[in-house]
Amino acid sequence: MALVPVSEARNRLLDNAGPITGTELVPLSEANGRVLAEDVLARLTQPPFDASAMDGYALRSEDAPHPGAELTVIGTAAAGHTFAGSVGKGEAVRIFTGAPVPEGADSILIQEDAEKLDGDRIRAKIQVVKGRHVRPRGQDFTEGETVLPAGTLLDFSHLTVAAAMNHASLPVFRRPRIALLATGDELIQPGGEPGEAQIIASNTFGIAALVRDNGGEVLDLGIVPDRQEAIAEAIRQARAAGVDALVTLGGASVGDHDLVQATLKDAGMALDFWRIAMRPGKPLMVGRLGEMQVLGLPGNPVASLVTGILFLEPLLRKLARLPKRRREAQAITAAALSANDQRQDYLRSRLTSDRDGNLMVEPFRKQDSSMMKIFAHSDALIIRPPHAPELPAGSPCPILLIRP
């Protein structure tokens, strides 16, 4: 099977995936970052009454047509409390922000513009304009109004208005459920004591974080030994759980000990492709097993993370109905880049700025795909297209932001 170009591979993966249609009702406290499945209508009118926007005095504007008008204060209206009477000629009610404007009043004289006189009298320092500092009923929204349409990606502002509309919970699309399956006799969990030929399993934790960062839920199937029956059982568990995608970590190639692809085929997987023209990350598998997407990432941790960004992230965001994450950018290379071969290269790099504020990118000298520390210290990946010629220092080049 020929090597598939990166862009073609990603398009083929996404063309076979559709947004999740299942929905659930979640409390407001758990709705941040979720996507609304239905229009959300106001259950009440806000404000529910004409309300004072300032601390001051509620009065009739016609009683203070010019500075110096005097009025008699006949009561108080505080937030949460209504003045029982009505405001008549030459009268005012002491009022506080958010309180209902009393019957008969049409304006607010703010306290800074009122002079207290003896007894219950005040004097207006300004001319009062009708409607000044009054929030009319329904100014924000009215009962039955569609305030949040379906498809809204909920954030702090949406949750605030949803609460104000008297919604304690919201209908959202469910999160993509992703099963992670790591394989290899050489792997043990962090915290364990590795044997002579063993290493610590690290891929699962980075890929699980990537899944959660992009709206997904993780079913961790653990580390499965290099035995076909054990791999088959893990695949059965993923299917029984009804996951949307099975992501395997390692074992997707066709070597004597790479059993994942063969086991998935035995289970009925339709394989699309499994080799990509990129570095790191050539052995990437894409297929489908019934309703379940299958994405086989390389076992090498750095290759796993790079392909996770390039393939798993856009798949997750399509399933979850989230907007595409913009990682692509342009920078100026601080070092000369050598000519490239037929595979698209992703070079781990650091970002800086020159004195003019231009974004500069400098690749690490060592690019061995086993070096996880370098990835952790990188800000971006320099993208070197297939057959790209040598690029002198100071030239613009495309990059992929690791932390956009």
Q: Mean pLDDT, as a whole number?
A: 95
Number of strands: 26
Which radius of gyration do the C-alpha atoms yield?
Answer: 32 Å
> Fraction of residues in helices?
10-25%
What does the oligomeric state look like here? single chain
Number of helices: 7
Query: What does the overall shape look like?
Result: elongated
What portion of the residues fall into strands of 2 or more residues? 25-35%
Give a short account of the largest sheet: 6 strands, mixed
Q: Which strand order do you get reading across the main beta sheet?
A: 7-4-6-5-9-8
Q: What structural class results from the helix and strand content?
A: alpha/beta
Low-confidence stretches: none
| N-to-C CA distance | 34 Å
Description:
This protein is α/β, with parallel strands linked by helices and 404 residues long. Helices cover 18% and strands 30% of the residues. The strands form seven sheets. It has a six-stranded mixed beta sheet, with no helix packed on it. β23 (344-353) and β24 (359-363) form a beta hairpin. The protein is elongated. The mean pLDDT is 95.
